[in-house]
UniProtKB/TrEMBL annotation:
InterPro entries reported in the protein's UniProt record: Globin-like_sf, Phycobilisome_asu/bsu, Phycobilisome_asu/bsu_sf
Membrane-crossing segments per the record: none
Gene: cpeB
Membrane topology: Peripheral membrane protein
Protein name as catalogued: Phycoerythrin beta-subunit
Keyword Transport annotated: yes
Species whose genome carries this gene: Synechocystis sp. PCC 9413
Organism ancestry: Bacteria, Bacillati, Cyanobacteriota, Cyanophyceae, Synechococcales
Compartment list: Cellular thylakoid membrane
Keyword Thylakoid: yes
Length: 184
């Protein structure tokens, strides 16, 4: 996994030049606390994000929990929840580092082929990832849905500056889109 500093050094080394993109590194450092807040917002709500995404996927496709469906019996449902948590965890790693290589190398490499071999419907998985993307974006902006969360609503209480959050929401969204593209 490469962070912004490692990536700059590797790039400069391959071209036998000095590190030249110092402004990019300054921007990465200045966004550090916001990155940590975004990762914390996702990680502290991970179980809710994943379980809501899987529940939403099942609501849209009831055959998944019927006999012969991919979330039936309970062990398959548990595997589905586990996979959702793994995907979400690697998205947070990528967001923290500002680099998708860890997501590509350790999570997405061969995922579609593995799911095809196991008979997992990728369209349902893609839908669950789309729901996780929307939920994670809301948590990064500290704007989860009060109507749906009810008593379980957790706000981080971090001051949110819209223009600063927009870049992190877009970056996190790009990592989720990367997962969707790998499964499609």
């Amino acid at each position: 996994m490469l962070d912004a500093f490692s990536r700059s050094v590797v790039s400069a080394d391959s071209s036998t030049a000095a590190v030249s993109d110092l402004q990019k590194l300054r921007d990465f450092v200045s966004s550090g606390n916001r990155r940590l807040d975004a990762v914390n917002a996702i990680a502290s709500n991970a179980s809710c994000i994943v379980s809501d995404a899987i529940a939403g996927m099942i609501c849209e496709n009831q055959s998944l929990i019927q006999a012969g469906g991919n979330c039936y019996p309970n062990r398959r449902m548990a595997a589905c929840l586990r996979d959702g948590e793994i995907i979400l965890r690697y998205v947070t790693y990528a967001l923290l580092a500002g680099d998708a290589s860890v997501l590509d190398d350790r999570c997405l490499n061969g995922l579609k082929e593995t799911y095809a071999a196991l008979g997992v419907p990728t369209s349902s998985t893609v839908r669950a990832v789309q729901i996780m993307k929307a939920s994670s974006s809301a948590h990064i902006q500290d704007n989860p849905s009060e109507a749906r969360a009810g008593k379980r609503l957790r706000k981080m209480g971090t001051p949110v500056v819209e223009d600063r959050c927009a870049s992190l929401v877009a970056e996190a969204g790009s990592y989720f889109d990367r997962v969707i593209a790998a499964l499609s």
